[in-house]
Amino acid sequence: MRPTPDWLVAEPHQDVDLGVLKSGKEAQINLIERQGADGRRCLVARKRYLPREVKQKGALEALGVQHASTFRNDVQYREGRQFRKTRDRRAVERMSTYGKRLLQDRWTGHEHDVMLRLWECGVTVPYPLSYGDDVFDLQYIGDDRQAAPQLFAARLHPDELRAAFDQLISGLQALAAAGVAHGDLSAYNLLWWDETLWFIDFPQAVDIAANPQGLNFLHADVVNICQWFGRGGIAVDAEVVFADLLGLL
After folding, report:
1. Which stretches does DSSP call E strand in 71-204?
2. Other CB atoms closer than 10 Å to residue 204's CB: what's the count?
3. Is the peptide bond before 212 cis (omega within 30 degrees of 0)?
4. What's the pLDDT tens digit per position in 80-108?
């Protein structure tokens, strides 16, 4: 098992919100400065999952977010994730207020659990710190001056692009060996920092064996990201990459 990161600030600690880093279709990322009682500090990325429905005026401001979630079709991603209690399953099926709350909680905890599992398997993902309600704290990738850019905006020269692609294949192999498909892999869900490719955004990740569409998600991930690298000049056959990954399942 990988050792606990040495940059972690011990409890108790104080957090100061430094503002919004990025806001997407399903979450808003804020930069947090965390300082421990011993004076040590670190930067943390706080992912706040956006509410699915906001009807009351001023509710978004009260929650500290800029807009509601625009992501809707999550049923196919949830297949294979079971609720143990019959009451909970029925609430989700009816999409009652309680059922929607259960889904929001499961969405948050699911991403934390998947990323911790992958981190322990050696995948290059930000270290997941903690989660609660609609908030997920994780390792910040970047420095005091800037956050790590998403891959699509990193402006890599040819040698860096090749290095990023090689790291992509290694990461996909590690994901497949762990039985996980990202579910939404693109150049927007990868970061490039310090010559390293980081995999991020796993709320839609699926267990390939448990989800009936697991292989379809894996195939879509491979095709989508290989097409992006192909447009950048990397000669790659997505079907060959996919076939190689199948051998690891």
Report:
1. 128-132, 135-139, 180-181, 190-193, 196-199
2. 22
3. no
4. 445 444 554 454 445 555 444 545 555 56
- Residue numbers of the domain that contains 229: 151-246
Decide: pTM greater than 0.85.
no
Considering the domain boundaries, does residue 15 fall inside one?
Answer: no
The enclosing domain of 183 has a CATH number of: 1.10.510.10
Q: How many domains, the chain?
A: 1
Closest to 104 measured CA to CA, from 55, 45, 53: 53
* 16 occurs within a structural domain: no
- Residue at 162 is within a domain: yes
Contact yes or no for 131/161 (Cβ under 8 A): no
For 109: left if phi > 0, alpha if psi spans -120 to 50, otherwise beta; the answer is alpha
Q: How many CA atoms does the CB half-sphere of 61 hold within 13 Å?
A: 3
Q: For residue 143, which amino acid is it? A: D
Strands laid side by side in the 135-139 sheet: 13-23, 27-36, 41-49, 135-139, 128-132
